Every structure is written in structure tokens, then in C-alpha cells.
Automatic annotation (TrEMBL):
Pfam entry (one): LplA-B_cat
Protein name: Octanoyltransferase
Lineage: Bacteria, Pseudomonadati, Bacteroidota, Cytophagia, Cytophagales
Pathway: Protein modification; protein lipoylation via endogenous pathway; protein N(6)-(lipoyl)lysine from octanoyl-[acyl-carrier-protein]: step 1/2
Enzyme class: transferase
Subcellular location(s) of the protein: Cytoplasm
Organism, scientific name: Flammeovirga aprica JL-4
Gene Ontology molecular function terms on file: lipoyl(octanoyl) transferase activity
Cellular component terms (Gene Ontology): cytoplasm
Active site, renumbered: 196 (acyl-thioester intermediate)
Length: 241
């Protein structure tokens, strides 16, 4: 079991380019796993599978998961162009969400055979890393039964607010897509969608909750540490990606 995880901070990147890059890494891991089955059949040693953790910031974009409804996007093509927002239908779970500047988007591309083969546990660990990170910045957050992501306000709170959206894809226990944490995101862009298909709950950010902008690099460092601890990852950085 290879617990080494290559961390790459890929900075600002258009959504389509990041999706292609994720897919390339994801497909290579799946290919290694298929090759390992043949090697095992031949009595040969399997090849170690790689793991990655990508942090990225996207220009304004709406993405619709495969179970989502297109009517949850409240803008037509003209409206998207006017707002300078892109729109993609993608292969993760979940409904529609927004990505943009001031948001930490995390893409763990992990072979869960290296950690644990339990998708429910995987999602809970991602949520827990976000909850612990927010707590370190003085924000109390948690989960709401039946809804993914991380929320502020308890289940019976009249005004629960989503601060982190999640949507993942897995195949052969390899993960892609991930989470989007609103740090200093412009919340007005959530007004053009029914976020995650939920019409009666608000969206928030760390900046909105704290009343001041937050240093993105500090949040990234804390979040990366919590992910490493929860998953027992050995994170290393590749400066030459």
C-alpha cells in the first residue's frame, strides 16, 4: 500500500484544462491497476500505483454532475456570456455547483486500495478535513444528514449555509473530482444556480462568516495537513509538474 501522495498546486487554471489533466492522471492509475491484474496472474510483482492531491483555482464556471438537472442553471447562453462564466456537464456525482476565484478546489486522485476501499468513509474524511480546517480559523461547521458537503448551522438551524461543496467520481477504487471550499469567493455567482439542487439553503464563505478576507495560502496549508493526518498520507511536492 503506497501512502505517498504527490501534491501539486497548479494555481489558476481553466476548468476544462484541469479536467483533462485530472483525467490523464486518473487514467494512468487505472491502467496500472489493470496491468497489475495481468502481472498477478503471471505471478509477477505488482507495480506501485501513484496518488495525487491537486489544489487549483478556476475562473468563473458552473459544473453540472451526472445526476443534476439542467434547469438548476438559471442563466441561458447569453446570460453566461454576459457574466463571463463557462458551463460544463461532467462525470462526477452531485448536481450543479460554481467554481471561481477565491475558492480552494481540491482534487484528490487516489488509489483507495492504498488507503481503504470505502467511498462513504472517503467522503466523510474529506468533509472532516474541511471541518477541522474551518475550526482552526474559528468557524464551527459540520454535516447535515442526507446532504453532502460541509455546512454552517446545525440541522434544525433555520438558516444552514453551505461553505464547501463536494462531488466525486470513482472507478476501480480510483478517485477524481473532489471539493470546493469557499474562502473569499464572490457569492453573487451562486445566485444564478440552484446550488447542488437545493433551493431552500444558502451558500456562504469564510470571508462572509468572519467579516474579513482570509489568506488563501494559510488555509491551503492547514487543509493539506488535515488531509495528510486523516488519510495517513506521506505528502511530497513535485516542483516540476
Amino acid at each position: 500500500m503506497n501512502k505517498k501522495v504527490e501534491f501539486q498546486h497548479i494555481g489558476k487554471m481553466p476548468y476544462a484544462k484541469a479536467w483533462d489533466y485530472q483525467t490523464e492522471l486518473f487514467d494512468a492509475i487505472v491502467q496500472t491497476k489493470l496491468e497489475n491484474r495481468k502481472r498477478t496472474d503471471r505471478g509477477e510483482e505488482p507495480i506501485e500505483t501513484k496518488n495525487y492531491l491537486l489544489f487549483v483555482e478556476h475562473p468563473h464556471v458552473y459544473t453540472l454532475g451526472k445526476s443534476g438537472k439542467e434547469e438548476h442553471l438559471l442563466l441561458d447562453q447569453q446570460g453566461l456570456e454576459k457574466e463571463h462564466v463557462e458551463f460544463f456537464k461532467i462525470n462526477r456525482g452531485g448536481d450543479i455547483t460554481y467554481h471561481g476565484p477565491g475558492q480552494i478546489v481540491g482534487y484528490p486522485i487516489l488509489d483507495l486500495d492504498n488507503f481503504f476501499t470505502d467511498i462513504h468513509k472517503y467522503l466523510r474524511f474529506l468533509e472532516e478535513a474541511i471541518i477541522l480546517t474551518l475550526a482552526d480559523f474559528g468557524i464551527k461547521a459540520g454535516r447535515i444528514d442526507g446532504l453532502t458537503g460541509v455546512w454552517i448551522g446545525e440541522e434544525n438551524d433555520p438558516n444552514p449555509r453551505k461553505i464547501c461543496a463536494m462531488g466525486v467520481k470513482t472507478s476501480r477504487w480510483v478517485t477524481m473530482h473532489g471539493f470546493a471550499l469557499n474562502v473569499n469567493a464572490d457569492l453573487k455567482f451562486f445566485g444564478n444556480i440552484v446550488p447542488c439542487g437545493i433551493s431552500d439553503k444558502a451558500v456562504t464563505s469564510m470571508e462572509h462568516e468572519l467579516g474579513h478576507a482570509v489568506n488563501m495560502q494559510e488555509v491551503e496549508a492547514v487543509l493539506k495537513n488535515h488531509l495528510a493526518t486523516l488519510f495517513e498520507m506521506e505528502i511530497f511536492e513535485n516542483q516540476n509538474h
